[in-house]
């Protein structure tokens, strides 16, 4: 289809992309909204002068400072009855109203200059591959089909991971993905050394065969991530970790932050809104808390982006208006004033006190 690449064209493009360092896109590099430094933006995918773009580590991709996370939690507040059994993973992805919602959200992302989608589940891969048909040239697609990756025992060998990726590409009608980031156990140190070696070998195979342009993992295990980045720098180009408005960076040389910088890794932050726990409303269009929740969302985005080392937070968004709101945050003053800091700290203390049991692990990411 128009705007899509076959695998051979993609491999050629990847070779060309490797030369992008000649443009000066090295280390922590940012093109701010409005491009005040007059940087050459011709190689930035879906460039919009109202958006900020950050270099995604050694991939040399320039990624929008906010991206679209694959999750669509609370979407049933916008598209009633879209969750089978009340579970967001059971969303009726073939339902026309669901498809229209995802298409409209992706469209607004493109209009705002957002250029990356991170799909984490099989349902997300299928839904976003469909929403991107005919306009893949506007978005990078991050891929993980976690149900067929190493969280599950039957998918922990090299051959099974190869099979998983090929099955997913075929089912989604994709010839390649921009980033394959395998979803490990949240505590990835639970994996055996052989399982990790299978992950690394699968990522290496995917790059060599043109199935993935770049590779990485998702994990919530700081010491283990640090060790893996030092051991497998060529295969781990991108990492997904939690990153909330409570997260603080430890800048000494022993921390994960320093290793991310040293290994030149792209860094995406999941759960920026603590899986929606930050918000007082239910995200429905007529929520009486909408204005207050929108402000909290913008404060969080501004707080996270005050760390120049992070590539982008990846919030799940369920309406075009939510896309507008996070895009607005990128243009707002980056540093929070004292009143804003106090408000965000007070609200995050509330979030920490009220976190559901299955999300209390977020507290482990208060320091990076």
TrEMBL record:
> Where in this chain does the record put each NADP-dependent oxidoreductase domain?
102-344
User: Which PROSITE patterns has this protein been placed in?
Assistant: TAT (PS51318)
Among SUPFAM superfamilies, the record links this protein to: NAD(P)-linked oxidoreductase
InterPro entries per UniProt: AKR2_Oxidoreductase, NAD(P)_OxRdtase_dom_sf, NADP_OxRdtase_dom, TAT_signal
Under Pfam families, the record lists:
Aldo_ket_red
State the source organism's domain of life.
Bacteria
Classification via PANTHER family: D-THREO-ALDOSE 1-DEHYDROGENASE, NADP-DEPENDENT OXIDOREDUCTASE DOMAIN-CONTAINING PROTEIN
This chain belongs to the protein called: Oxidoreductase, aldo/keto reductase family
What is the organism field in this record? Thermogutta terrifontis
Output the lineage of the source organism. Bacteria, Pseudomonadati, Planctomycetota, Planctomycetia, Pirellulales
């Amino acid at each position: 289809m128009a705007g899509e690449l076959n695998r051979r064209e993609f491999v050629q493009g990847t070779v060309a992309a490797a030369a992008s360092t000649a443009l000066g896109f090295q280390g922590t590099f940012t093109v701010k909204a409005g491009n005040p430094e007059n940087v050459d933006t011709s190689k930035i995918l879906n460039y919009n002068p109202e958006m900020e773009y950050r270099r995604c580590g050694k991939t040399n991709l320039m990624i929008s400072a906010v991206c679209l996370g694959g999750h669509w939690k609370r979407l049933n507040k916008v598209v009633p009855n879209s969750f089978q059994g009340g579970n967001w993973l059971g969303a009726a992805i073939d339902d026309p109203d669901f498809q229209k919602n995802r298409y409209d959200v992706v469209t607004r992302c493109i209009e705002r200059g957002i250029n990356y989608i991170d799909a984490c589940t099989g349902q997300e891969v299928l839904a976003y591959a469909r929403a991107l048909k005919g306009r893949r040239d506007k978005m990078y697609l991050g891929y993980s089909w976690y149900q067929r990756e190493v969280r599950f025992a039957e998918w922990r060998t090299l051959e099974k991971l190869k099979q998983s990726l090929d099955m997913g590409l075929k089912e989604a009608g994709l010839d390649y993905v921009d980033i394959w980031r395998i979803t490990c156990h949240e505590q990835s140190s639970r994996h055996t050394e052989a399982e990790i070696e299978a992950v690394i070998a699968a990522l290496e195979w995917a790059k060599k065969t043109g199935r993935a342009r770049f590779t990485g993992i998702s994990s919530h295990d700081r010491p283990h991530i640090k060790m893996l980045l030092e051991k497998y720098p060529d295969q781990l180009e991108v990492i997904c970790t939690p990153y909330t408005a409570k997260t603080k960076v430890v800048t000494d040389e022993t921390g994960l932050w320093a290793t991310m910088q040293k290994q030149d890794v792209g860094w995406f932050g999941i759960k920026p809104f603590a899986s929606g726990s930050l918000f007082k409303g239910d995200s429905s269009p007529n929520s009486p808390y909408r204005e207050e929740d929108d402000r909290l969302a913008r404060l969080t985005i501004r707080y996270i982006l005050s760390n120049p080392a992070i590539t982008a937070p990846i919030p799940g968004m369920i309406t075009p208006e939510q896309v507008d709101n996070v895009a607005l945050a990128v243009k707002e003053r980056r540093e929070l004033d004292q009143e804003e800091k106090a408000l965000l700290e007070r609200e995050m203390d509330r979030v920490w006190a009220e976190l559901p049991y299955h999300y209390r692990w977020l507290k482990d990411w208060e320091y990076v």
